[in-house]
Every structure is written in structure tokens, then in C-alpha cells.
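DM from R.C. (forwarded with permission)

"hey, sorry to bug you on a friday — could you get me a structure for this? deadline for the figure draft is monday and I only need the backbone to look sensible"
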Amino acid sequence: MLAPARHQRSWWLRDQLRNFALEGRFALRVTLPGQAVQNSGGRLTWTHENRSDRVLLSSPLGYGLAEIETSPEISRLRTADGKMRESTDPDALIEEVTGQRLPISRLPAWLLGRSGGKARIEPDDLGRPLRLSEDGWQVDYSFADDSPSALPARLTLSRNGEIELRLRIEEWKETP
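My reply, with the result:
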């Protein structure tokens, strides 16, 4: 198990991480022309293994809001009221439910500062990702310590001033 994000160890290499689990908090802000600003937030538990993901979203008090499961074949979204939706495209599934096309399929790579396709990645002075830009999205990274191999403690994903997703990662774990 990896130490919490605020106490990462330099012996562990971010570039070698393939499967992981994380615990954290999120805040989503959507600012669309002609519409009221929408804010939401809460906690998330994310497991990424073998190109499949399971993300549990809960309210700040821990009440389950939704569960998202993706694999190369199918994506499923189950809401707290038991409704289930499926799609072969996870980004389209999120858009159907939220009205916003969020880059769900790219997030596992972006969390680690890797390209989800053809990203431009700017490193910081220690060689870690500082900013990633891909297909209109920008990801800004911050780290809890000065280790060159540290995992990010905070990420801000944004697109055109319309969408901002902030993630605060409290704990990273390597999974088999």
C-alpha cells in the first residue's frame, strides 16, 4: 500500500504505476453561457485495474450518489435511486446523465500525468507533470512533497472556462 498523498515516498515511481486505488474529494463547477452556475462536490473512491475503472461518488457526508463502472466493452452508471444506464462510450454516458461531456476515458492516464492520446505535457523543475493540455482540456497538478516520483495530491481539470473539476487526493494505493 502506498502512503497517503501528503506523505509519498520517493522510492516509488509514478511512471511504473499501472493499477491503483485512490480516495479523495471532488468539486465540480459548470459555467455555461445563459445558464446558472452549477456546483457539486463530495467524496470519491476510485479503483483502476486492467483498463477497467470503478468510481464511487458520495456526498460530503458519505451518502452514495452514483457508481460508475467502465471497461473496454461497456460502461455502466448506477444512481442512488437504483437507476442504471449503459453505453459503450463512458464519455457519452456521462454526457447523457449530466449534460456535460467529461473525459472519463482519459482520466486514469491524466491522473498520473500521462497522455490519454496526444497530450502536451509541461514538466515542473523536478520533471513531474505541471500542466497537461489535450483536446481543449487543461490539467494542472500540485504535489504534497518535493519528491521527483511523487503522485499528485491535487488536480484541476478545466475546459474553456465552462467546466472545472477539482480533485484532492487523500490516499493512493497500488493494486495488484
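R.C.: lifesaver. The domain at 5-169 is CATH 2.50.20.10 (outer membrane lipoprotein receptor (LolB), chain A).
me: no worries. The radius of gyration is 16 Å.
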